[in-house]
Amino acid sequence: MRHAVTALVVCLAMVACRQPETPPAETETMESFAEADYDHVDKIDMHAHIHAKDGRFVDRARRDRFRFVDIATYAADPDEMRMRHETVFGQLEAHPDRVLAVVSFPMQGWDDDGWAEKTIRYLDEAFDRGAAGVKVWKNIGMEFKDRNGDDVMIDDPRFDPVFAHLVERDVPVIGHLGEPRECWLPVEQMVIHKGYYSTHPEYHMYLHPEMPSYEDQLAARDGLLARNPKLRFAGAHLGSLEWSVDELAAFLDRFPRVIVETAARVPDLQYQSSRDRERVRNFMIEYQDRIAYGTDLGVEPTDPTEEAIAAARERWRSDWRYFATDGAVEVRQLDEPVQGLELPKAVVEKLYRLNAERFFGDGWRASPS
Ligand SMILES: [Zn+2]
Q: For FRET with 258, which of 54, 121, 136, 360 sits at 20 to 30 Å CA-CA?
């Protein structure tokens, strides 16, 4: 009983404390950033592939106040896979305060006994080396087959020990599973992703009707999340629900611990907001704790730093203009410029930094300078 009384007193005190003496003016809480604030706001690009062999790209991004989640994505070719991992660890070593390394695991030996144990050992070694997360890629579901020639999906029970281990260690997982819905359409019906599928027919699922459907891919991803409710999971590329903020909202409602990031799907949001700006803006505000900013920028070992940083900066500035201001934004795939969403400052800060920081815990070893 005494506990109950104490709890009630504490509770009343909290309620009392929560009342501000004068409520903040509407204009103050809804205040937005200016375009020039880009230079002053600390930001995180949660989806980058920086495979440069030196630290100059990340150095140059300091002026833009960007930190990175640098992702070594799966590659079927072991040499390519090794290069990606070595360069990502190289970036981490050069800039432990700026870069967070995310790794992938090989699929070789999937059909053999002990694949899961071997994979867990491989991942533990990567974590010992400083990796902060794991990425699973669309090769699961869209490329990799077992010895019977069957497609391996991400909710395959053979993955269970690996994901159980990641849950136990509370390791964040970024999942690029499935593809944009347009991937299952003929190129001439695509609006946003024409360029990619025209040059990557191997991943253009409209051309491969024998492969699992869009719905199959999302069902497998949802199956993974249902089997592992404690998995710390971020859906890359807006969780492959880039075409509808309503569908994306329903997904986020279904899996309340999951977040998504925007990599290479900002144009999909822009397309939707060109038709109904308020709908997209309201979604971004309502789900402000669940969306993190990412680009999918790539820097290859041979790319000149100045060109790479110029390309990244153009993307970053354009996206900032779209999310933070109400300025007109040119979108390559659309005929007309799109008006920016002018999200409130607090929402922009979550999108650009706080949600990624929360997702990765204290991953970045020091605060930015
Ligand atoms: Zn990527």
A: 121
